Amino acid sequence: xxxxxxxxxxxxxxxxxxxxxxxxxxxxxxxxxxxxxxxxxxxxxxxxxxxxxxxxxxxxxxxxxxxxxxxxxxxxxxxxxxxxxxxxxxxxxxxxxxxxxxxxxxxxxxxxxxxxxxxxxxxxxxxxxxxxxxxxxxxxxxxxxxxxxxxxxxxxxxxxxxxxxxxxxxxxxxxxxxxxxxxxxxxxxxxxx
Length: 193
Fold this sequence. Notes:
Layout: H1 2-17, H2 22-28, H3 44-51, H4 53-76, H5 81-96, H6 109-119, H7 121-138, H8 141-159, H9 164-177, H10 179-186
């Protein structure tokens, strides 16, 4: 039954990732659809743009939680670090290409944060620090996110090399998801918060 449970866990992780919490949070706060306002991204940063800190923090916590919970469950069943990484990637992919929203999702940063905190807390906290410093310096969430994720493989290689494949894949996925932001940055058109 263990392989069957792993398949179920991966599908459940993807399904959980496919729940874009920015949507119900904006409805709860009577805010506009985040896919039609601001950056049009259903994530915590855009929720902040249209609704302020409180709904943004709730969105961040819930989006991170859907990354953390599947990895924690995999740990409870004593799956290897590589299986945990697969489960994490299922949840993050769910956020990026959600089945419930016609495969049009967010950037995956908050969900990656939650998965990373469960799987590699020391590395993830350092990357959160990189994000915070970059955000303080430039006030551009996309730039802060890209700088943090491209630092991920370096930090993970130094602290826990077994997590390097996860952070390497995350760097690729999240940078690709930010490609339009990077184009706007190069053109000096990306709007700071």
